[in-house]
Amino acid sequence: MRLDTLGIDRSVSVLFPPAVLLERLEELPIETVLIDGDSESASDSTERCDGVVTFEYRPSLLNASWVHSVQAGVDRFPLERFREANVRLTNSTGLHGDAIGETVVGYMLAFARRLHTHVANQRERRWSRPEWDEPWTIAGERACVVGLGSLGRGVVDRATGLGLDVDGVRRTPIPEPGVDQIYTPDALETAVSDARFVVLAVPLTAETEEMIDADVFAAMREDAYLINVARGSVVDQRALVRALEDGGIAGAALDVFETEPLPESSPLWEMDQVIVTPHAGSATRQYGDHVASIVAESVRRLRAGEEPVNHVC
Predict the structure, then answer these.
(1) pTM of this structure
(2) Measured between alpha carbons, how far is 183 from 192 in angstroms, rounded to an integer?
(3) Could you list the active site residues?
(4) What is the location of CATH 3.40.50.720 in the chain?
(5) Which of 66, 85, 214, 294 has the CB geometry, 3.0–4.6 Å to 239, for a possible disulfide?
């Protein structure tokens, strides 16, 4: 394919300044330009770009030959339209394991050591020690990681390093280092039944949408915590709220939601046993550098007539 001009869409600013990519990619043997999806200027449109690096989807992207998503998830991109238009779509899978893994164990430690309660007390200038039987240590507890791709792998490495036992759920029951037992999705309720932490790290697909429903919550331990760093729609949010209100589970750490930003009217904001973070679990100051590395390698491959990195469709 022809690849002479690469556009960096301003929408990547959700994650890092576009200038980071422009600087990191300036040595490429192609022109790199900043484009603005909301601009009517022809010089800033996708029409002059052979490839585009973007955070968001819009129909004009189908004028390019190649589109790279700066996120791993591509649920916002209509894959059939890309196939029909013969536009290659790639993503940033493989970048987030370290950051997501650290975020997840941060949630685990916060719940176990009651750090979220201490932070809330600090805002109120309230000196309040927890009851003697409230704090606990995570070593020896069990986590169930649903999804064992690069995100799940990052969680497994850090959880086992802190002494947790780990089970996992994925489509094929292939053994995974550090994972005691592999379950397939049809045995999800069994998989979560003995876990103190249930960690969601799956992509959003037709198969995973609302896979965590009322039946799954009923199968979880009453002292279990749900951690979602996948996509909000992987969880039936209404069933989650009911499980939290009824004491069916002990709490939840949620980085993703059905609607983002999380509406002010959501009861999740007011729940003491819930940690809400703004879809920032993968955030790191190295994010732009990591994306640049993937993009640069894909440019090299495409210009050589090879398949790009992380080819989705």
Answers:
(1) 0.94
(2) 10
(3) 231, 260, 279
(4) 5-95+284-303, 97-276
(5) 214
% pLDDT > 90, the chain: 95
8-39 burial, b at 16+ Cβ within 10 Å, e below that, comes to bbbbbeebbebebbbebbeebeeebeebebee
Confidence category of residue 39, pLDDT binned at 50, 70, 90:
low
Round to whole Å and give the CA distance between 7 and 303. Answer: 16
Class of domain 5-95+284-303: alpha beta
- The dihedral built from the CA positions of residue 147, 148, 154 and 155, taken in this order, carries a sign that is positive
Nearest-angstrom CA–CA distance, 41 and 34: 12
Q: Token pair of 164, please? A: 């947790």
The residue assigned the tokens 């780990």 is 166
Predicted confidence at residue 38, as pLDDT, reads 63
